[in-house]
Specification:
- The protein is globular.
- It is an alpha+beta fold.
- It contains three helices and five strands; from the N terminus they run βααββββα.
- A five-stranded mixed beta sheet has the order 1-5-4-3-2.
- β4 and β5 form a beta hairpin.
- It has a single domain, classed as 2-Layer Sandwich (YaeB-like fold).
Length: about 90
């Protein structure tokens, strides 16, 4: 099981969401704690300026994160709408 850390910018975006969307996004983030066991999440590695990050797709929202396998930690850097993040 991985520990999840959320950066300030991502937490600020989460705080602005309506309650239904917040619940959907936060449930998807909670599923990340079982990163290698969860098969139904839409996760892809990124290229370009976000090269060492992974992307989790949650509807029209994108969650950008990194995984530290040694410490079993996931750090969420950015959560944004699809059009605003890329």
């Amino acid at each position: 099981m991985y520990k999840i850390f959320i950066e300030k910018k991502a937490a600020k975006f989460l705080s602005k969401l309506d309650s239904k969307t917040y619940r959907i996004v936060s449930n998807a983030i909670k599923k990340l704690s079982h990163f290698h066991e969860t098969k139904n999440l839409d996760i892809k590695p990124l290229k370009g300026k976000f090269e060492n990050m992974l992307r989790l797709r949650v509807g029209s929202r994108r969650v950008l994160f990194t995984v530290n396998e040694l410490k079993k930690e996931i750090k969420i850097w950015i959560i944004e709408n699809r059009g605003d993040i890329y």
